[in-house]
């Protein structure tokens, strides 16, 4: 099992761990205060009921988000994958934006619950206790982003040496491989934002079980996971038909998120109010996910255009070794021992 072996890999891991531990403790404190102040009959209130689910949902997403980030940190360092390391910095930026949005969302939720007399000692008493911790979360993420970005710059030089020793393809092959790496990294980040949006939608927005949109949203979870897994599979196998289907499904995913955004802001006031309790956070996730889908489609097309140009052996063979440990997934082995190696760049 991989463990960090240098100053900067340890630094990247420790920053991610400390950031996760501090923020999750702040979110847990907020959740505990909320649960203590919430009256027993609050969830049954027809007006304020949906607002009681906002804070538990945010905490759940942050727990999942940071645990997933730690898995991706381990994966990126294990594979010495510079692209994924840079992606983790952008992932941190996405969490920071989400944390900033949650401040106003939680304020609105507590205000609604206080207005319905569903909080012990009123809304202002609870808000004054949790506000400093909520404001601190995006600030900590901002500091974490700066630290991770600096360490990522150092890791680029460190990982470039490993790539220098193992990769000896021509410049065009390196660019094809770079496109593949970006695509695989995007699929990993797509998973969190796809799933995060869907979970929020199911928990925060209250749908009747017979509502077709409820069933559609439930079905989106396994379908999304299957699409992402098959997207990576077809790319590694250079399956043109399968890749064409995946690209079409990505366009369908884009249409799905545009449809969800339209539903949240449609003219029908009754329908629009259904999303009121979580509209801002759902919009944030939907916009980030749409940006990721566009980037994923672009890279999927670029990968498909590279099929049959000699990249397949580099990504299907798993021979790259670092001392006595084999990296498993996305690093490119040296299949051309007769050539002098040249350093891989990401520009």
How would you explain this protein's 3D organization?
The protein has 347 residues and is mostly helical. Helix content is 74%, strand content 1%. It is built from 10 helices and 2 strands. A two-stranded antiparallel sheet has the order 1-2. Helix 3 (82-115) runs antiparallel to helix 4 (122-166) and helix 5 runs antiparallel to helix 6 (212-237). The two termini are 31 Å apart. The model is unreliable at 318-347 (pLDDT under 50).
Short overview:
With 347 residues, the protein is mainly alpha-helical. It has ten helices and two strands, in the order H-H-H-H-H-H-H-H-H-H-E-E. The protein is flat and about 70 Å long.
SSE layout and pairing:
Layout (H helix, E strand, L loop, with lengths): L6 H31 L16 H26 L2 H34 L6 H45 L4 H34 L7 H26 L2 H25 L4 H5 L5 H27 L6 H5 L4 E2 L2 E2 L21
Antiparallel strand pairs: 1-2
Helix pairs in contact: 1-2, 1-4, 2-3, 2-5, 3-4, 3-5, 3-9, 5-6, 5-9, 6-7, 7-9
């Amino acid at each position: 099992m991989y463990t960090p072996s240098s100053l900067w890999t340890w630094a990247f891991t420790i920053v991610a761990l400390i950031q996760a531990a501090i923020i999750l403790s702040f979110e847990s404190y907020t959740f505990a205060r909320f649960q203590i102040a919430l009256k027993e009959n609050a969830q049954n209130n027809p007006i304020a009921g949906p607002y009681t689910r906002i804070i538990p949902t945010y905490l759940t997403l942050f727990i999942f988000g940071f645990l997933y980030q730690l898995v991706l940190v381990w994966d990126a360092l294990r594979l010495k994958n510079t692209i994924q390391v840079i992606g983790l910095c952008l992932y941190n930026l996405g969490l920071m934006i989400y944390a900033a949005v949650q401040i106003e969302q939680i304020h609105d939720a507590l205000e609604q619950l206080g207005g319905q007399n569903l909080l012990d000692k009123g809304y202002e008493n609870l808000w004054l206790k949790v506000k400093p911790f909520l404001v601190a979360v995006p600030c900590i993420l901002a500091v974490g982003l700066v630290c991770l970005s600096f360490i990522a710059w150092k890791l680029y030089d460190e990982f470039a040496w490993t790539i220098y020793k193992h990769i000896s393809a021509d410049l065009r092959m390196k660019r094809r491989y770079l496109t593949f790496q970006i695509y695989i990294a995007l699929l990993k980040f797509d998973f969190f934002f796809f799933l995060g949006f869907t979970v929020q939608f199911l928990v925060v927005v209250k749908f009747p079980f017979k509502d077709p949109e409820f069933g559609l949203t439930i079905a989106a979870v396994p379908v999304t996971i299957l699409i992402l897994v098959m997207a990576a599979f077809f790319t590694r196998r250079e399956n043109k038909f399968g890749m064409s289907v995946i690209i079409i499904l990505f366009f369908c995913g884009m249409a799905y998120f545009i449809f969800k955004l339209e539903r949240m802001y449609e003219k029908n006031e009754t329908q629009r109010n259904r999303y009121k309790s979580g509209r801002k956070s759902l919009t944030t996730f939907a916009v980030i996910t749409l940006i990721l889908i566009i980037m994923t489609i672009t890279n999927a097309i670029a990968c498909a255009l590279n099929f049959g140009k000699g990249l397949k052996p580099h990504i299907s063979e798993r021979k790259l070794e670092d001392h006595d440990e084999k990296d498993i997934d996305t690093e490119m082995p040296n299949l051309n021992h007769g050539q002098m190696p040249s350093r891989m760049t990401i520009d």
